[in-house]
Amino acid sequence: MKVTKLVSTCDIKDCPTIYATDRGTFLVQGETPTDHGLQIPAHEALVEIPMELIQKAIRDNLI
């Protein structure tokens, strides 16, 4: 899979980030919340990212 960084909230590696793939999908890097109360299948995961990151991606016409 080819991954391209689209937008991040900072320039270091441990910040919320959105990536595009050559599969026509997005990868999202963020915190893994544990207090959501949801039942998530073992093959899936939730990540939490700031609304600011989505707004920045839209504003920059990246998504």
Secondary-structure map with pairings?
Layout: E1 3-8, E2 17-21, E3 26-29, H1 51-59
Antiparallel strand pairs: 1-2, 2-3
Structure characteristics:
MOB_kinase_act_sf, alpha+beta, 3 strands, 24% strand, 1 helix, 3-stranded antiparallel sheet, 14% helix, 63 residues
Please tell me about this protein's structure.
The longest helix has 9 residues, at 51-59. This protein has one helix spanning 51-59; strands at 3-8, 17-21, 26-29. With 63 residues, it is α+β, with helices and mostly antiparallel strands. InterPro entries: MOB_kinase_act_sf.
Short account of what is shown:
This protein is of the alpha+beta class and 63 residues long.
Strand order of the largest sheet: 1-2-3
Please, how many helices? 1
Order of helices and strands: EEEH
Query: What's the total count of β strands?
Result: 3
Q: Which consecutive residue ranges, at least 5 long each, have pLDDT under 50?
A: none
The chain-level structural class is alpha+beta
